[in-house]
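Friendly challenge for the regulars: who can give me the C-alpha cells for this chain first? No prize, just bragging rights.
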Amino acid sequence: MATLTIPDKRLTLENPDEIRDYLAQRGILYTQWEANCAFSNEASQEEILAAYNHALNPYMTEHGYRTADVISVHPETPNLPEIRAKFLREHTHTEDEVRFFVDGQGYFWFNLEGEEPVFCVKCVAGDLLSVPANFKHWFDLGPVAFVKTIRVFTDASGWTPHYTDSGVDARYREAAIG
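First reply, four minutes later:
Bragging rights claimed.
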C-alpha cells in the first residue's frame, strides 16, 4: 500500500483511506487493484499488459484512454543512471498520466505550488495513481531502482515530458523517503 509523505511538515500518512482522501482533495486519483502476477526482469511489455488486460481495458474504455505501455526497471537495466535522471526532473504532461504498479515501488513527487507543500507518494504493487494533465511532478525510482508499472494515456504524445526547470525537484532529491 502507498505511503504519503510531506517532508516540510514531517508528516507521513499510511492509511489508504487517508491517502485517497488527501489526493482526491487535490484532484489526484488513487486506488488499488490486484497485483498478483509475478514476472521476471525479462518479461515483455505484451506479457505484462496481457496479464492485466481484464482490469486495464475496462478502465481505459471508461476513461477514454487509448494507449498503454510498460516501464520495467531493475538494477541491471542498461543506462539506468540516464533513465533515472530523465524521471527525476520536474515536468508536466499535456494529458493525465495514469500508472498502475505491477511490481516494485516508485516515488511520485508533486509540486502543486501556492500554499501547498511538496509531497511524495510512494507507490507499490497494486497502487494505481492518476496524475492530472499539467500537474507538476517528478518520479524517483528510489534506492533499489526496481519497478514494473503500466502507463496509460489517451495518445502516445501525452508521454512527452515538458520540463519546468524550476529546480524544486533538486531541493527534495536527498529527502528521506523511507
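DSSP finds five helices and eleven strands in the chain. The mean pLDDT is 93. Your move, everyone else.
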